[in-house]
Write a structure and sequence with these properties.
Elements: E1 2-3, E2 18-22, E3 26-30, E4 32-36, E5 42-43, E6 46-47, H1 51-58, E7 63-68, H2 75-82, E8 85-88, H3 94-105, E9 110-114, H4 120-125, E10 128-132, H5 140-145, E11 148-150, H6 153-161, H7 164-170
Parallel strand pairs: 4-7, 4-9, 7-8, 9-10, 10-11
Antiparallel strand pairs: 1-8, 2-3, 5-6
Helix pairs in contact: 1-6
């Protein structure tokens, strides 16, 4: 269920995109960023420091989606404060719902960030999957599904803000 519709306009009608050629890995052309909420952007329901500014900066380059089962009841408030789309998933088949959402967006144009076992299918299907080893831990399934693993959400968002950094990690 999609909730909220933030302003998606860009200056002078520019298309939002991050494009990068990575030697031996291929072309990376991203249009969407899908962010897990709990354990990724927030710990114990609180958005981590540095996230709001980075998400705001990325909004001019990517359409940003927050995806959550909203176990703490803060997803709508968080999405509104970050000015991003909210996609709620129902408990029980969260992993499949997250996968289907990425596929609906066009998985080849999606970067996804998460930390939980229910994020693994999303991370694997997205063109770029980034797993976070943060304060709530990192599920083994998410670790093995990701293209890149970082210790902090700030580092993951910085990879997208400064995409040349991805070359050092992903090139063959």
């Amino acid at each position: 269920m999609r909730v909220g519709k933030p302003d998606t306009s860009t200056p002078e009608g520019e298309k939002r995109v991050i494009a990068l050629a990575i030697p031996g890995w291929g072309e990376l052309v991203l249009r969407h960023l899908v962010l897990d909420l709990n354990g990724t952007l927030a710990v114990d329901g609180q958005v981590l420091g540095g996230v709001t500014e980075r998400v705001s900066n990325l909004a001019s380059r990517l359409e940003i989606h927050l995806i959550s089962a909203d176990t703490r009841g803060l997803a709508l408030q968080t999405a509104q404060s970050l000015h991003v789309h909210l996609e709620r998933v129902e408990g029980g088949t969260e992993d499949l719902q997250k996968l289907r959402f990425v596929q609906r967006l066009g998985a080849d144009s999606v970067a996804a960030i998460g930390n939980g076992a229910n994020d693994a299918l999303m991370l694997c299907s997205a063109r770029l999957g980034i797993a976070i080893l943060g304060g709530e831990g990192l599920a083994l399934a998410a670790l093995t599904a990701a293209d890149v693993v970082v210790s902090r959400i700030e580092d993951a968002l910085d990879l997208l803000l400064l995409p040349q950094r991805l070359i050092a990690t992903l090139r063959h």
